[in-house]
Specification:
mainly beta, globular
């Protein structure tokens, strides 16, 4: 009986660890310039197996109605709150790296190639143009 209880405990612990490693969920973004929290992004998996992220909260109350004035695509002059800023990420095999997508910086309207690396409740986000070594990085934190 003790072995059975131990097995059940280990099984549920393993399941909780797998779910903790999911990219899906809400993430607090931290500005890479001033180090302050700037927004919440909700990441979800679509039917095509790719991951997307929308801004669901803006921390600065004065920025609630801000628009992407510098965007050059369909998001030009659209409200940032609710905007999809992360798209087309795919998991690389069974790793914790997701790549092949892009990310929009609504502050300057630029779209960058993107990859992310999931590490528990931290998400390393890298946006770049050209080669991966050149670009901007941020650490996002899972909102519980």
């Amino acid at each position: 009986m003790k072995k059975f209880i131990s097995f059940v405990f280990a099984f549920f612990f393993a399941i909780s660890m797998v779910s903790a490693q999911s990219l899906e969920g809400t993430w607090k973004t931290i500005d890479d310039v001033d180090g302050k929290p700037s927004s919440y992004v909700k990441i979800f998996k679509s039917k095509d197996g790719k991951y997307y992220g929308n801004v669901v909260k803006i921390m600065d109350p004065k920025e609630q109605d801000s628009k992407c004035d510098d965007c050059t695509d369909y998001r030009k002059n659209q409200k940032i709150l609710g905007m999809q800023i992360l798209k087309d990420l795919k998991q690389e095999g069974k790793t914790t790296k997701y790549s092949g997508g892009n990310i929009l910086d609504p502050e300057n309207g630029k779209v960058y190639k993107c990859f992310v690396v999931l590490n528990g409740d931290k998400l390393q986000v890298k946006g770049y143009i050209g080669i991966e070594a050149l670009g901007r990085s941020q650490t996002w934190y899972r909102v519980k």
